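S1.2 Input.
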Amino acid sequence: MLSPADRHARGNRNAIALAVRAWWRWALGWTLPRL
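S1.3 Output.
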């Protein structure tokens, strides 16, 4: 069984992964048309 701290850490990792993915999509979409 997961402790609340473990669940919180996993949620944080998920949020970070989503933010990184969204940032990459924005960065690529902004940069590629200018190459």
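S1.4 Remarks. The CA atoms of residues 12 and 18 lie 10 Å apart.
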